[in-house]
From TrEMBL, chains A, B:
NCBIfam families: birA_ligase (TIGR00121). Keywords: Ligase. Pfam families: BPL_LplA_LipB. One of its GO terms (cellular component) is cytoplasm. Residues 1-177 form the BPL/LPL catalytic domain. InterPro entries: aa-tRNA-synth_II/BPL/LPL (IPR045864), Biotin_CoA_COase_ligase (IPR004408), BPL_LPL_catalytic (IPR004143). GO terms for molecular function: biotin--[biotin carboxyl-carrier protein] ligase activity. Its EC number is 6.3.4.15. This is Biotin--[acetyl-CoA-carboxylase] ligase. SUPFAM superfamilies: Class II aaRS and biotin synthetases. It is an enzyme of class 6 (ligase).
Amino acid sequence: MNIIKLDAINSTNDYLKTLLQRQFVENFTIVSAENQTNGRGQMGSEWSVEQGKSLTFSVLVKDLLLEISHIFHLNVAVAVSVVEALSFLQIKDLAIKWPNDIMAEGKKIGGILIENSIKSDGEIFSIVGIGLNVNQKNFENLQKASSISILKNQEFDKQEILATILQNLGRNISLVMNKNTEPIWEKYHSVLYKKNVPMPFENTHGQKFMGIIQNVNQEGKLLIKLEDESVKKFNIKQIKMLY
Amino acid sequence: MNIIKLDAINSTNDYLKTLLQRQFVENFTIVSAENQTNGRGQMGSEWSVEQGKSLTFSVLVKDLLLEISHIFHLNVAVAVSVVEALSFLQIKDLAIKWPNDIMAEGKKIGGILIENSIKSDGEIFSIVGIGLNVNQKNFENLQKASSISILKNQEFDKQEILATILQNLGRNISLVMNKNTEPIWEKYHSVLYKKNVPMPFENTHGQKFMGIIQNVNQEGKLLIKLEDESVKKFNIKQIKMLY
């Protein structure tokens, strides 16, 4: 079984969504879960964690994005914030696998799931869910998953990591608010997983092909140079990275 | 009191959202409410209806929009579907007040609230909430609100209206799916409220100014010709129509 199931954290996201339906929730409210009983990964797959050993939380971000077309700036700000926090812990070979997976030494150690809600009355809000494998040691059958603890061979304080991520997030979200997005994009591209490396991909028709990741554009699309030297844009539904 | 409080229907939308968090919900699922006890208008205002006299329902639309930039096509398809159903009932002077209010004879008779959810894992779905004043007769203090029943001086069968709207919606959503959006945009522009008429507006700083609505662009922004003949784009948060 080759699917990485640690992708993203839905249940703290769901909690925040339900709260938002019922009452006023302040901007930058954080929901953190000591134990996730209902975590789901991408594609609805079950996600089992060793209780209490992973860091899972959601942050509400309101009215940051006033333009639908700017949605991916938030993804970049969040992914970069996580990577910066992990660099601080001296985790090596950190990378962001497009669009939002956190990698270290070629293994997946975290995932981000951002849910943007855009109403026709102009209200825009985003729920940012972040999941990081901190102190887990066992990843049965998940050969491509790892944790900070495995990589560094020590236990970590989840609350300290949370605080550092939130600090970075505050700073990077300010950059987006001030339309100074260049620095976070530069960082994002500098740690983009498998950039400039020939890689196999698979399209929605199940066809495999080779390509080289060039970069990610402002809309969040992956630009891949194909064998005929042309560069094609793909959104997340259109392509699978085979690695 | 001059605020129109019949804008949009949140509670069937909320019901659908909660359902989606809990279980698989089929595309084009419809939630219709005979009585809305928790309906909210725009800006969180309370919305009181005469029990059972309004048509309020929500429709789930999944994976229609594969590009974030195409979000407004759905708004257009929905607004046009409602207008077409009302033309069928021979309601006169129908118009769509940008972005999504349904007008007849200069009064508001319905509202649409679309909530688009876009996840970083590529999932896009929209919850389309539609509210129509069908058989209400009383709109205390709401001088700019009316109902189909008042306009036509007869009672209507809500279920028949619902069926007609859904039929139109099916057809118009097919157009969007087939990327043949020209016809619905043409219709939308042909019934755009106050198009080509000098009108007062107010910006976010409370400044009033005169302008003439030109059209709505593909991103859903309102293009207004100003007194200096320049044309400026506004999103829904940036402008208020004073009428």
